[in-house]
Amino acid sequence: MQALVAVVMGSKSDWPTMEAAAEIMDKLQVPYHVEVVSAHRTPDKLMEFAAGAADRGFKIIIGGAGGAAHLPGMIASKTRLPVLGVPVQSKALSGMDSLLSIVQMPKGIAVGTLAIGTAGAFNAGLLACQILANNDVALAARLDAFREEQTRAVLDNPDPREV
Ligand code: RP5
Fold this sequence. Notes:
The protein is an alpha/beta fold. The protein has a single domain (5-135), classed as Rossmann fold, CATH 3.40.50. It is built from 6 helices and 5 strands, in the order E-H-E-H-E-H-E-H-E-H-H. It has a 5-stranded parallel beta sheet, sandwiched between helices. The longest helix has 19 residues, at 137-155. 5-O-phosphono-beta-D-ribofuranose is lined by residues 9-11, 13-14, 38, 40, 65-67, 88. Pathway: Purine metabolism; IMP biosynthesis via de novo pathway; 5-amino-1-(5-phospho-D-ribosyl)imidazole-4-carboxylate from 5-amino-1-(5-phospho-D-ribosyl)imidazole (N5-CAIR route): step 2/2.
């Protein structure tokens, strides 16, 4: 099946974070591709990937990186596809370095920046599904069901002392 979302990350060490994006796309049955592409360690691969992403049929790119996290911004510089950036929580600065590296893009090249860590990765996957659902009624229905299920889980168990 044609992958609609590309999930790329700077290192294999980012996968424990970025798999949260895969988790929600699995649940909502959105096909995706995952690959390590590093802005610093494989810069030529990054440029080639970004330049060819639209022709490969991807609709959205999710880029996760930590530290001096140039990956999402550099990808965005070479493609018109929407790029969602996930700041991976770094050891040295707890992801503030990643966040600031990704979020403060210069006017004219956009990256939609999510929260630091797994919540950001999950929401990047979710947002990708929401964007794709604009042109996919079946996906829109699955999204509605996911949100209802989430709401119901909170309403059905409101006592904070119970698991
Ligand atoms: C970044 O450097 C990666 O995105 C990763 O978050 C960080 C550390 O990479 P490793 O040294 O664990 O490969 O490029």
